[in-house]
Here is the input.
Amino acid sequence: MSENQTQENQPGAAGSFFERPQVRIERIEIGDGVRLGIERVSNPAIGLGGAYGTWGECVDNASLPAALSDQLGHPLEDGEVLNLSELGFNFRHHVPPELSPEEQVELEVKVGARFLAEAAHAAGWDPSEVEAVLLGVTIPASGDYLERIAFEAGIPEDALKVTIHKACDSSVAGLNLMLNPELPTNQSQPRNLARELLGRKVLVGGLEGLSRVLLAAQDKQAIQLFGNGAGILGVIPGKTMKFLVGGMKEVYDTEGVLQLHMNYPHSHLRVEGQSLIEVSQPGEHSLLYAGLMHEPLDATDPVVMAGPMGMVKLFVRSGVIAVRGVYASYRELMAQRGMPGKEIAVAIVHHANFKINQLKEKQLLKEGISIPMPWLLSEFGNVSAASNMIAFLRKLQGLVPGDHVLFDGFGAGTYYDVLAVELGGPT
Here is the structure.
């Protein structure tokens, strides 16, 4: 094991995502055309497959400040330019700002439909076989976004469609909902999704058009850090992926260290002792899990961030507690099964930034918890709910049936979902 496990893939080593030989590049004919890159990944021995990628203009760190000057109306000052390579990011992808709002939505619907269809095919299914979709998205392009992309992808109308708004934690929250029958969010609702989806063909992941969102932003950190990205995985719960242990944690961001505008339904109320998550049913076959956010005072500003150290303090302290609790449950379960030496093969941690993951790993090591936590995404920027799924897909082909994987999600709100799973075999 290396001294610093997060550096399995060194930040700065990767080139542009569009240059990868496995990436299929398409052109979405909207405006002057928008480039879309998708990579499929499959592991037949496990029975898992999925697709990930990005869309828009690829901008490297050196070109980014100039590219953002038109959006801000003035150049970034020297002290405002982030050392993005130090934070683990070399590129990010932006949609054309000259597209109309209607064209932005149309673009994201076409992109989303392509990712769903490609993920289904990578899992060995036709989209018409998909029985449920759980999608994490921070700020959706439209209120019926999942329904629209599922329809365009050829997914049946009666397939369950679950949209999750818990910022960067949303895709791991989807995994937890899909796999963990004891999850408080499942226990408190009439429909326990983990029980309902057992043995079914499910697409789960994150799809984030963050450059669209940030066209209206003035926060100089956010517009440098975030970009577009998607990662969707095809899973048969209980067969290709089996739940071991898991949990969730909510710690309201009282100080507003990471403020996010909610453009989705939520009462905006915070009640002591009650969950920050509200569940609604916008359609006959649709569910919405919406997390309360500390919103910016200016309703037109989508995101406001504190300094980098504020992000570290916000996520590391509670994040370590969340991982520690689940890891303790994992060790107890392995002892009960007579497998006390069984280890986690890899931890798939949200790629908020490299320094956060480094410090989180360091704090866990102090508590005697040593899990491989590779840094796997340098070509995308922070892609919020998509990052865990992209990272998992990048490790998928090196995993084998029986491997145990820890998923660690966290995001604005603040929300934490952590779970350990066992990978199965083909059905």
Remarks:
- Residues 26 and 224 are 25 Å apart (CA to CA).
- The two ends are 33 Å apart (CA to CA).
